[in-house]
Please model this.
Amino acid sequence: MGEHTGGADAATGPEAGAPFVGREAEWARLLRAVEPGSPDPVVVLLGDAGTGKSALLERAARRAGADGARVLRAAGSESESGLAFSSLHQLLRPVRDEVDGLPDGQRAALREALGAGPAVAREGAPDPLLLGIAVLGLLSAMGERQPVLVALDDAQWFDRASLDALAFAARRLVGEPVAVLVAAREGHRLPGFDRHVPTITLGPLDGASADRLLDLQPAAPTGRTRARITEQAAGNPLALVELARAAAARDTAAGLPDAGPLPLTGHLERVFAARLDGLPPATGRALLLLAAMDSADSGVAAASGLPGSGDALWPPAERAGLVRRAGPVPRFGHPLVRSAVYHAASPEARREAHLALAGLLRDEPDRRAWHLAAACTGPDPAVSAELERTADRALRRGGHAAAAEALRRAAELAPRREDGARLLVGAASAAVFTGDLARVEELAAEARARTDDASLLASVAVQAGRLAVLTARHTAVFSRLADAAEGLAASRPSAALDLLSGAAVVRFYSGEDAQRRRVHDLLGRLPEGDAAVRAWVRTVSDPLAARDEVLPLLARLAAGARDRPEQLIAVGITAWLLDETPRAVRAFDEAFDRWQVRGTLPEGLGGAVAWAYVDRGRWDQAREACARTTAVGRLTGLDHAVACAAAVDATVLAHRGDAVAARARAEEALALVDPLESRSVGVYARRALGAAAVAEGAYGTAYDHFRALFTADGAPVHYHASHPALADLAAAAVRSGHREEAAAIVERCARSLAKGASPRLGALISRARGLLADPEDAEPHLRAALADPVLAHWPFEHAQALLDLAERLRRRRRIAEARAPLAEALEVFRRLGARPWIERARAEARAAGLDVADAAPDALAELSPQQQQIVRLASRGLTNREIGEKLFLSPRTVGSHLYRSFPKLGVTARSQLRDLVGGAPAAAGPRGQWGPAAE
Model:
């Protein structure tokens, strides 16, 4: 913080009301952001060093504070970017007592991250989303009492864990009395703040503004000196001010640094370094300690034992424009001053400063370890071990990026190459959970360069593969994983099988048949090993062929995974792929409810968890799973996971009649991937677009979307995702004049599936045949689609078949027979909230002489999709905080949505929602004839 800006206050620090030079538009934009109710409460300021980011931020903070806002500040420091949650700790230190007001889980997560509580025992990694919700909840609760401004300076040096938590909260602040202003150096990536966030880029001042700024300096330069300053500063406000100051102090243009080859920052560092020459030696030593410490956290600085601001050492440095005495310990006026002081010292002096700080920070083991590392001139096993312990502490708190960096530095200091390679493998493993594939691959390459150990090489390949499968680079990633598996097949078959399991996932995403053949070829060359992993590889890459072999193993696989929740999820996905949806949902319920599994990376295979809940008729839970996958995917920058979730969410929205929102989500999914590279997402998104068209009665458009799920000759575009749309294709074809083409596709798929079809797929083919058949031939096919009681485990598809049968019966004047399936279908649609289908079933029921009342879910039609989701959860008795944790919203936002929804619903109390929505039965899972309680 404390960066200068272009204005009259540039030399002395911003004062409220002082005019800015050349930054008036940017200042007005920041003012709008901090206004209550701003539609854009998050703004990122980008610019080179010295362009005025910090001063604008400081000015906005002072204005907000004067207007009654609570201002929370944090500033990044380069040396602390490897300390997990250090920036978040700095930001929330003044309000740490308010953390106690959070719900138990959020409070524990936040206290643990801040080092104020013990790391709790858990299965798997800490949940980063719970921490994000805790930060959001804390800011929201503070905002209920007074507006809040969060000012984040030098964010390019924030540790990744803090940045993730703050970005998560910032994306959910619309409607909250909380604003977030972020300042960072241009050219640095800010995960979470680098997309869809309004950005102001501070460029150079124009000539007129530069002249005005120079005129406002205490000793305004003139003549040749002014021309040289203007040329060298190139419109940079800090350079204009500091070069003018240097010229005034030396009273000669010759005293200015030559233009030379140095970048502007180099010139400025030379200007600052020159001011050290006339300082007392003790002041110089204190400045070096301050520079070596490089902490923006005043609490840490005060605890380090450095002389306080009132010490007589500091006035000479303040007069030289190097520090500001604005807190317990002085602070540098700009990060370039710190860099100048540090690099002006000799290597031995810097080493002594770090050793002195390490001795002062014995109660701060992580900072101490990094200072010891900075003092090392070569390998040091003791310091390497200290950094390894630092990494372990960071991992326990969820600081994966910090752990990776500590392990990387520990590897540099490890005397033995084998130890260095082991530490680099650990660093790559930790970096996997940041979603930064480039960093993982860089660490993996460093590890490979240090060792020939086959075990370590296999381990690093597996670690890189874990993250690679979650990206959208399917073709390249598959080749890499398959090649690595082939190379390790003989020497490390277990690692090869792990790599092949990842390759199978990529095959699912891409749908490329050549990849299936290679997976099966490699699997055949591996010795019999882990039965669960082999079953996974077979099922994910070719579920139809694997069904007969793997189905009998499911019970044993589930039993073996009961105490291993991640494997339980894998068993659930395997079951879902085999159309054993009830088993899949049981596995997911146990993993999420009993074990509270909440990983740092997206769960499931292309949204498998959410799809299982959709199939099972638990649509609210499907949308909750989508919300989580979306949040994790955005947090880690994994667009493919976000696209998978968007496609599932779009499908539920379409079935519930919100065609506009469904199309938006489906198009979002398609925009995030290459549909030709990721056929699974492309097919799922097209299915959602088709369902949205059906909801609007646009059957021609619906048919076009469903037709795109199959090739020109009728083969499925995706071996697993296309087949479930056969009945939808047939229904749209009948209403749009494409009966013959659709019939050819259905029969082609039926022949290719043959005996490999699950009962569910068999029922869908029967329904499709019934829809496409002549009226007198339709009934046997439709009854076949309903014959097996197990088919009721897919309630929406079952209800569609019931409605189709009832419609055919009524048209053949068998009205009495039509009433039972009609009533049952209508009940299912009502429980699911499938409004377009409710209306269609009600119209048919009235035509059949049934007395049908208005459908309760119609009351939700005026609500937005998010409001509908919140109302449904509230109807189940969940509190605002519980709803917020499920949907990753603040309690205040939930309450605001309910407040706006109640008048539209005609209710005045939450207790009325249960009867209005009928949410409880649907949320608990299907029951009755169409959904046995056996689940």
